[in-house]
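Work Package 4 report. The design task specified in the project plan requires that, given a folded chain encoded as structure tokens, an amino acid be chosen for each position. We show below one input record used in the internal validation round.
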């Protein structure tokens, strides 16, 4: 049955908006080895819910690393080979490719980002990228006051 455009997507849990987005994205591909959401607070990205290995990068200044560059440039980052990026912040030595998709509110303001690491080089094609962008749009339209 067609749903009206205002209805919540199936993955969305109102009790855990960010966590449910992370769980859904992590299930999209076995190549997604680490999935997390960073929340933008002023000039700092703060790690929210994530699935995967623990990371020391829980706070990333805007402009630093692939994550901080996404915010300072206002563009999603699809990095087929993280070893080619001088500003890459290694989360795990196994990581070979990374996708960062910005989460914006419906007016375009950056709220945070979905960050995905893969052990596979060039893990993120156009279809993966557009699936994650869709989740980011849906989450951005339902951004909660409490970041859980
Ligand atoms: N690789 C990211 C840091 C975050 S970890 O991947 C979880 C970066 O370069 O910004």
């Amino acid at each position: 049955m067609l749903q009206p455009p205002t209805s919540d997507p199936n993955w969305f849990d109102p009790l855990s908006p960010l966590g449910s987005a992370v769980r859904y994205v992590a299930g999209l591909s076995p190549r997604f080895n680490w999935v997390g959401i960073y929340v933008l607070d002023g000039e700092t990205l703060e790690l929210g819910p994530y699935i995967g290995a623990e990371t020391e990068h829980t706070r990333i200044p805007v402009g630093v690393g692939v994550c901080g560059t996404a915010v300072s440039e206002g563009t999603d980052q699809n990095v087929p080979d993280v070893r080619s990026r001088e500003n890459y912040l290694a989360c795990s030595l196994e990581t070979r490719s990374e996708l960062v998709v910005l989460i914006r509110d419906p007016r375009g303001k950056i709220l945070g980002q979905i960050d995905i690491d893969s052990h596979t080089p060039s893990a993120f094609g156009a279809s993966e990228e557009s699936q994650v962008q869709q989740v980011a749009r849906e989450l951005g339209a339902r951004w909660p006051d409490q970041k859980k």
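The chain has three helices and six strands. Validation will be extended to a larger panel in the next phase.
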